[in-house]
Sequence to fold (205 residues):
Amino acid sequence: MAVHAAAGGPPPSAYPRLRTAVIIENSLETLVGAFAEALREDGIAGHVCARVGDGAAQALFGDMPELVLLNDNTDVACDDDGLIVRLSAPPSAEARARVRGYAVLYAARGVELHAIASQPATACGLTVRQRFILGRLLLGDCPDEIAAASGASVAAIRDATRRAAAILGAKNQQDAVAIAARRGLLLTTETRFPALSPRNIAYYS
Fold:
């Protein structure tokens, strides 16, 4: 009690840190940890983000994936495409709106990071998405335009560009585009089906 008084009040909430993580975090593991830390403030021990389809839920990420097997009214609906966040316990009445709001932001960013991490690399080490982004950069598109064309956020486009530069050993974005162009790795169109499936990834290799 005396420590809190000396520090000027109770410890800071984890929710503002989560809000920052949702905006800038590029690590899915760190994002999951930030959401879990915030939930613990509301007495929730764990969660899983899942996609529901045909009556079954498929776990995508979270710190308690076993929750995907349960269905006891602890779901926080996130979108019309079956994306949910399932909690280990229902939040209190006063916390429910806050938890739901942050769950929507968390799940949207987490699904994006999960998709990036799940993309298979082609023979050159870059994913199809990374090669597409570098190709569009060469054509003069800005990250906002590439994001609109590919259905991703600007943050995801910038993150994919940084990762591609690291894989190519490039000093910066311009160097990455130049290296990829010299090696014949650039793509300017992105066919989602079936070329992006792991089975057909050799098409781009």
